[in-house]
Specification:
There is one protein chain. By secondary structure, this protein is an alpha+beta fold. It contains six helices and 17 strands. Helix content is about 10%, strand content about 15%. It has a four-stranded mixed sheet with strand order 15-14-12-16. The radius of gyration is 19 Å and the shape is globular.
């Protein structure tokens, strides 16, 4: 396998160079050379980190558009038909109190050591409120209706889509792909309203997680909602649902008594998803049993942004309400997605983690919010 350095940029899907204009920024498909230790010899990484942009806000120093989209700023914003003025941001408002406590964050038996899953360390957290489910298309639509917000994928004009969701016609128009993750394709016109490109829509997926949202988009939504993104520690603590040192939100067994507890990939990745859990792409945000804190879909379905900058070196010191590094290039995402399979992307564990630049977006990346009680 080629080294990561030799594969930093395998291909470039671009509209132009050297400009601060989002319309002239480019998508870089960066290979993820990580392989699960359970993967068969010769298999490649899942490409969890592949969908990245080049020259976007992570490098330009552009601040996330939070203040402009706060609930206070938009309390008198023009309303489109069907939208209502933000009360609790016009969302479902369903949150649960995650009690203050301590837990063991990370693991000393990492599934993917190079992701910085270890060492395990004790973390103390104050109580916080968390959305019981991922932000849905309907939730995000209310935000857009109230504010006129335009996502970064819409400004850039494209976003990454898993090739298994695309028609042959769409795929025939794309010539770029990553050698080690060829299932990620840059699709013109793909965004939160059109998850697989211009000919797709969300009319029948309003209760599914919103996709193709960058970290900056998620932060803008949270600000409008009077909320924020969870820290990585808060996310992982909530994911564990009160259980100590378990792989998944419900325990160590993936399918207890043969029941599916998350929307993951079944079959052979990336060739065939049997949909044994009922879905071959995203599922409604209230699908599958809740964990011990009453949270749906903490793993699988869609990756979820967190507030933290990415770092793979962690102290073993006992920490109180950690917020991660003060600076960085990538933001942490947690939980895995419907594309995760143990042989290629064993990142649907509570301790698992991955990263993307703050302006990146894809067809398996969303978020949920938290707030202080």
């Amino acid at each position: 396998m080629l080294s990561r350095n030799t594969l930093v940029i395998l291909c470039l899907y671009c509209y132009g160079f050297a400009s601060g204009d989002p319309a002239e920024q480019s998508l870089v498909l960066e290979p993820d050379s990580t392989t699960s230790p359970t993967a068969e010899t010769g298999s490649t990484g899942c490409g969890c980190r592949s969908p990245k942009r080049s020259g976007g806000s992570a490098d330009s120093g552009r601040e996330p558009p939070t203040a402009k989209y706060s609930a206070e700023t938009n309390q008198h914003a023009p309303q489109t038909e069907g939208a209502r003025r933000p009360e609790h941001a016009g969302t479902s408002g369903e949150m649960v109190l995650i009690p203050a406590g301590q837990f063991l964050m990370g693991t000393d038996n990492p599934g993917i050591p190079q992701d910085g899953e270890g060492p395990q360390r004790r973390v103390h957290l104050s109580a916080f409120l968390m959305d019981i489910h991922e932000v849905s298309n309907l939730d995000f639509e209310k935000f857009v209706n109230a504010t006129g917000y335009v996502t970064e994928a819409e400004m850039f004009g494209d976003s990454f889509v898993f090739e298994g969701l695309l028609s042959e016609t769409v795929k025939s128009q794309i010539s770029q792909a990553v050698a080690l993750a060829p299932w990620w394709l840059p699709v013109k016109g793909a965004n939160w309203k059109h998850p697989e490109g211009p000919n797709s829509h969300i009319v029948d997926r309003l209760d599914h997680p919103v996709l193709h949202v960058s970290w900056n988009d998620a932060t803008a939504y949270c600000s409008w909602a009077g909320k924020r993104l969870p820290t990585e520690a808060e996310w992982e603590y909530a994911c564990r649902g009160g259980l100590q040192d378990r792989l998944f939100p419900w325990g160590n067994k993936l399918n207890p008594k043969g029941q599916h507890y998350a929307n993951l990939w079944q079959g052979q990745f990336p060739a065939h998803n049997t949909g044994e859990d009922g879905y071959v792409k995203t599922s409604p945000v209230m699908s599958f049993p809740v964990n011990g804190y009453g949270l749906h879909n903490m793993v699988g379905n869609a990756w979820e942004w967190t507030a933290d900058w990415w770092n793979v070196h962690h102290t073993t010191d006992e920490l109180h309400n950690p917020t991660g590094p003060s600076t960085g290039q990538d933001r942490v995402k947690k939980g895995g997605s419907y594309m995760c399979h143990k042989s290629y992307c064993y990142r649907y564990r509570c301790a698992a983690r991955s990263q993307n630049t703050p302006d990146s977006s894809s067809s398996n990346l969303g978020f949920r919010c938290v707030s202080d009680p």
